[in-house]
Model the fold of this input.
Amino acid sequence: MPRTQLIGGNWKMNGDRNLVDVISATLNGASLASGVEVVVAPPAPYLALARSKFAGHIGVAAQNASSEKSGAFTGEISVDMLKDLSINWVILGHSERRELFGESDDTIGRKVVFAVKNGIKVIACVGEKLEHREAGKTTEVVFRQLEGIRAHLTPEDWAHIVVAYEPVWAIGTGKVATPQQAQEVHEQIRSWLASHVSPAVAEATRIIYGGSVNAKNSSTLQSEKDIDGFLVGGASLKADDFLTICHSKI
Ligand SMILES: O=C[C@H](O)COP(=O)(O)O
Done:
């Protein structure tokens, strides 16, 4: 069965109420192809507003969630709070959380399992730095990050997970991976899932690409057989560009 494409828009720490209005007006009024799922991830203060403005078929994601249920965790966001706002997606393991906020593979694994077990779908990010790629360690790094997630999950849990391959050297740099570079790693991730989880999970799991995706390069990337959509940063802040990316699967 063909996998539904997922196009995620990660606003990071950008945007305001007006951007919620602009992007929701554009996406709500567009006819999105069947077989394409769209999820937008505004900053936490705008999640409730976004959920009220975006049409129901467009998912809204948080950019982080705690692995703890509640309590003295100043600044954190709980899964129950997200569910209270009808937010049913979260991005976890983004390289900016790993690098700038010191989130380890284990921390991310615990966050992923807590979200999934409590009914929130996860876009789980993995990806190597340039130094890893140049040292021929791309798969070593990506597989280690995947294992940090897999170690906490049952095979059934993978139905609620989308893997985002985001090479760190391509994020926000304008240096997009070539379709061949992205396809190669996506194929390796799918093979890893087949051998470490199950062939059925490997076949069903969506593996999306992130890193300098824009309205001009998305169609070519989408033509690769193991690329099941995108996690878009900068270009998701521009309504027309993001809509073009949402339409990039022919
Ligand atoms: O989550 C999105 C990625 O970090 C990609 O960001 P970018 O499209 O601005 O390179």
Notes: The domain at 5-246 is CATH 3.20.20.70 (TIM Barrel).
